[in-house]
Amino acid sequence: MKDERILLSHGAGGKKSQELTERVFLKHFKDPALLLLNDQAVLDQIDGRIAVSTDTYTIDPVFFPGGDIGSLAVHGTVNDVAMSGAEPIALSAGFILEEGLPIEDLDRIAGSMAQAAKDAQVRIVTADTKVVSRGAADRIFINTTGFGVLRAGLEIGGQCALPGDMILLSGTIGDHGIAIASSREGIKFQTPVLSDSASLNGIVTSLLDAVGDSVHVMRDPTRGGLATVLCEIAVQSDVGIEIREEAIPVKEAVKGACELLGYDPLYLANEGKMVVVVSQEMTQKALDAMRSHSLGRDSEIIGEVSSEHTGKVVLQTIMGGRRLVDRLTGDMLPRIC
Amino acid sequence: MKDERILLSHGAGGKKSQELTERVFLKHFKDPALLLLNDQAVLDQIDGRIAVSTDTYTIDPVFFPGGDIGSLAVHGTVNDVAMSGAEPIALSAGFILEEGLPIEDLDRIAGSMAQAAKDAQVRIVTADTKVVSRGAADRIFINTTGFGVLRAGLEIGGQCALPGDMILLSGTIGDHGIAIASSREGIKFQTPVLSDSASLNGIVTSLLDAVGDSVHVMRDPTRGGLATVLCEIAVQSDVGIEIREEAIPVKEAVKGACELLGYDPLYLANEGKMVVVVSQEMTQKALDAMRSHSLGRDSEIIGEVSSEHTGKVVLQTIMGGRRLVDRLTGDMLPRIC
């Protein structure tokens, strides 16, 4: 008789752990390095500098419109690696499971991770599972740590924006935040708002193939949203940033939900969008490259980098005013990723 | 006024997140890659094959005799990387914090991680923090993912044991398990049993410098203990394993506590010990190398690999009998690591 729910013994490293590994993880994760069942994966030499990123996912609900914690755990870390300009190669996966979690749910989540990894062409090379007693965690938390290899000659990072650079955004903002919030609040839309959760390494490749070292910053506006990410870049690069509200794409349904729930889309999390800071002369070429990719069809130029008001972000509002944009204060949506 | 406890907003990616990062993490983690505050770290090219390992730490209690969750999170992952024969280079750190955790505790844990990393000469290059509401996690969970670079020509793994090889153990077993169990149960010893939690990369270097490619398997007997690890190796390599109970070092206090609590030291977790499978002709040299290191002074030859009873582990008991040793069944000590 198969267990239907996670038991403490599934995390003890003995027989039950082996059973769970075979029944769920090896069914979905078939990487040759992982199949050796050692406590580590051995990979070939990587030619080039290496980018490493780690993220833990505690999203609530675990299954949400447009994805689940498994696909998100792949997308989010693939994106953090890709934002350095690196091609993501491999991921590790660390699970914390609450005693009592339906194994059917874990199976669905692991399957979703495997599919997302396949789609992004990254390997899941090693994994670990811990189980804690009922009440000591909320169903499932997943850490993914990813690494990738950087193209030669690239120098991309939050500290690399220069006055005169233009700021591009790859599509609408707030979709992920509203998908989660509406799912929690039980709000129904005529056209449901889905999370934008997706792996951005494909569009990054298109962009870098087109304009290469003219890209100075790439960052995905996740927790804290577009506003916070721009504030971080302004401080890291010691530059000023000006953005135009009217240029920032927001879906009508997201606008409506924001009004209803009292959110500002500038602070909502996204999981499949990127901000790109690119040198002025390559802006159009960068925009064309981004729009040519399915995840960047709604890309827009949303602003520029200046040498004035360094460390600060200024928004030109639709009404014609100008106001300072600050980082997120407080936490309007806990456990968004 | 500084916050004394973790708030949800410390995980929201905005101002409070920045505050916590500066106040705790940047105080202890000073790696130049991390100080750039990007969502990923960029490292130099690594010459050689790469070993990657991930582990999530949910140990209860967070502070225990001989260590804490922070030092353990470094030791455990450094060891998993080192067991492949790789020299650990860098770690990522992913934190899940429960709302209400005293920031003083987090500070102590981060300091302990930084010290353990410094001692092991590995860098903590990137980190992530999530906060969940009170009751959705138990104080603090930490994921560390580590990677390292393999010496050329080594082929070490659970699948590489050969009949005729000898099995070495680097010291006493059960110390970590008993330290945790006694701490939970409030048992006092005349001489307290401390966890053996330690980074093994130094002793691995001594061993490989001495006998290099004669080492076929290295594994640290953590969850599931020595018995489970030997069972895994027997299956992975399709060999039989024979061990002698009288050769396995166990501290008197650990023996006593095992009798009192009903544990078998063969199944207790260790966090600073390793099992080494080495070709017969190099056994003495390997043993000398291990004993010359402070973490291997009590190293012993505990058994050998045979071509009989493949996939099984046989124990010669002190009483002169022979019995099959199985993997851990059930979970005698949840949240041991």
Short description:
Two copies of one chain form a homodimer. The first copy, chain A, has helices at 15-28, 32-35, 69-82, 103-120, 175-185, 201-211, 225-237, 252-261, 283-291; strands spanning 41-43, 50-57, 63-64, 67-68, 86-98, 123-132, 140-150, 166-169, 215-219, 240-244, 275-278, 300-306, 313-316, 322-325. By secondary structure, chain A is an alpha+beta fold.
User: For the record, what CATH class of the largest domain in chain A applies?
Assistant: Alpha Beta
Q: What is the correct CATH architecture of the largest domain in chain A?
A: Alpha-Beta Complex
* Strand proportion of chain A: 15-25%
Under CATH, the homologous superfamily of the largest domain in chain A reads: PurM-like C-terminal domain
Oligomer: homodimer
* Helix and strand element order of chain A: HHEEEEHEHEEEHHEHEHEHEEE
What's the number of structural domains of chain A?
2
Q: Which overall shape of chain A is indicated by the principal axes computed on the Cα atoms?
A: globular
Side by side, the strands of the main sheet of chain A go: 9-11-8-12-10-13-14
Main beta sheet of chain A: 7 strands, mixed
Most residues in contact, chain pair and counts: A-B, 87 and 87 residues
> If you average the pLDDT of chain A, what whole number results?
96
Measured as a percent range, the helix fraction of chain A is 25-40%
In the predicted model, the low-confidence regions of chain A spanning at least 5 consecutive residues are none
Query: What distance lies between the first and last C-alpha atoms of chain A, to the nearest angstrom?
Result: 35 Å
Please state the CA-atom Rg of chain A, rounded to the nearest Å: 21 Å
